[in-house]
Design brief:
429 residues, three-stranded antiparallel sheet, mainly alpha, binds carboxymethyl coenzyme *A
């Protein structure tokens, strides 16, 4: 029997259907609320209780610490799948066959060549630019260089835009890195695997041949998979809402990149390392910073801790922590920030402030330590997050368009002045 939710406003009763997802998540469908009640809306700052869509891409249970892409657990995917396989899964809904994966990879690689004009745009950026600003700008500029991708009415057009985004992005990431590091620009190499090519673009030194490092490639692959999607977070919601106006894929992705930049979202991985370095430079007293994080008069937050949805543990953080230990060990890197991170985690897990508020390390807490061990500059960490999140954003955009979702347009409760007569201030004074 279908479930109903009842609502009473000023003595009037209204009924709304209750819908359930495949994992029994429940929502009251209030689509008819405003019409039926002649103007009443709901308000929910930060959308803490509001579902913006129905989605079949990613399942997340914050209480149990579960994350699945298209039904496959993040643990299995991180262990057994490649980033490109995971991207295909997210975007098209099923794991690819060997042939499908090969075709997908070939099609992406056919979109590798970077337009000269993009590199010219890059020249105008100051060397001190934040690489996320460069990445966002160059992604938006793709609209101009690949105008055919702005048409996404047929399956072929959608596929073309998707493979172009996946083909161009590694080079855009490396353009952002190499510009800010004063290194010569490189082009993507189709002879290399997708992640091998990314490694070469990131790590190749001037005038030297690049030797692939399996430890780095495996860790990079895993980190990209762990970041690949996370349902209706700030950047994915931004991508969907921009795309809902039928703006292009690249315009929507640009919005996602900019939303990700903030330190409460993807920018946290940069903020974590800066925080850990500060603590190390300040004598390594983790307890002092725990006290600051708990002090409501102090704006300091323990970066990399807490999550809107995870209220038990973040399954990605567990994998990243284990990977950080392995990578630092395999690369023979000793990093005092890892010791501080572990000390903070231990203290937080025993501290009533963090326990009561269900604050646990999130994916960003240990990821920066791995990037640092690989030699990636701190301000590039969020760019690497964006590289991983690209297939998730694409999948969210594609689903929104396929489901023919209406344009995103929230309402508001107006709290400003009532109507006032206009009196010119120049006449008054
Ligand atoms: N350090 C200290 N206190 C915290 C923290 C923290 N990192 N996070 C939350 N709190 C406190 C907060 O002050 C509030 O306390 P009270 O109830 O006394 O007012 C309570 O916990 C609930 O916090 P909230 O800000 O209402 O929770 P939210 O769901 O709106 O925010 C969050 C989630 C991730 C923005 C927040 O936990 C935070 O700012 N964390 C640090 C930034 C960070 O690591 N972000 C990365 C998120 S994971 C990667 C991604 O997908 O973006």
């Amino acid at each position: 029997m279908s479930k109903i939710a009842s609502l009473e406003i000023n003595g009037e009763k209204y009924e709304f259907p209750v819908i359930e997802g495949t994992e029994n998540e429940t929502a009251i469908n209030i689509k008819t609320l405003r019409g039926a009640t002649k103007g009443v809306i709901t308000i929910d700052p930060g959308f803490k209780n509001t579902g913006s869509c129905q989605s079949a891409i990613t399942y997340l249970d914050g209480e149990q610490g579960i994350l699945r892409y298209r039904g496959y657990s993040i643990e299995d995917l991180a262990e057994k799948a490649s980033f490109l396989e995971t991207s295909y899964l997210l975007i098209f809904g099923e794991l690819p066959s060997k042939k499908e994966l090969e075709t997908f990879e070939t099609d992406i690689k056919s979109k590798y060549p970077t337009p000269d004009g993009l590199v010219k745009i890059l020249e105008g950026f100051p060397k001190e630019s934040h690489p996320m600003g460069i990445l966002g700008s160059l992604t938006c500029a793709l609209n101009a260089f690949f105008p055919e991708c702005n048409q996404t009415n047929t399956e072929n057009e959608v596929y073309n835009a998707i493979t172009t985004a996946l083909g161009q992005f590694p080079t855009l990431v490396s353009l952002a890195l190499r510009k800010t590091q004063n290194l010569t620009q490189l082009t993507s190499d189709p002879k290399l695997g997708y992640v091998e090519n990314i490694a070469q673009l990131l790590f190749k030194k001037e005038g030297e041949a690049y030797e692939q490092n399996q430890i780095i490639n495996d860790a990079l692959d895993k980190l990209l998979i762990l970041h690949a999607d996370h349902e209706q977070n700030c950047s994915a919601s931004t991508v969907r809402i921009i795309g809902s106006s039928h703006a292009s894929l690249f315009a929507s992705l640009t919005g996602g990149i900019n939303a990700l930049w903030g330190p409460l979202h993807g920018g946290a991985n940069q903020a974590v390392i800066e925080m850990l370095e500060n603590i190390v430079n300040d004598g390594g007293d983790s307890k002092k910073y725990m006290e600051k994080a708990k002090d409501k008069q102090d704006s300091f937050r323990l970066m990399g801790f807490g999550h809107r949805v995870y209220k038990n543990f973040d399954p990605r953080a567990r994998i990243v922590k284990k990977t950080a230990d392995e990578v630092l060990n395999d690369l023979g890197v000793k990093d005092p920030t890892l010791d501080i991170a572990k000390a903070l985690e231990k203290e937080a897990l025993e501290d009533p402030y963090f326990v009561d508020r269900k604050l646990y390390p999130n994916v960003d807490f240990y990821s920066g330590i791995i990037y640092r061990a690989m030699g990636i500059p701190t301000d590039m960490f969020t760019v690497l997050f964006a590289l991983g999140r690209l297939p998730g954003w694409i999948a969210q955009w594609k689903e929104m368009r396929t489901n023919k979702e209406p344009i995103g347009r929230p309402r508001q409760i107006y709290t400003g002045e009532k109507h006032r007569e206009f009196v010119s201030s120049t006449v008054n004074s």
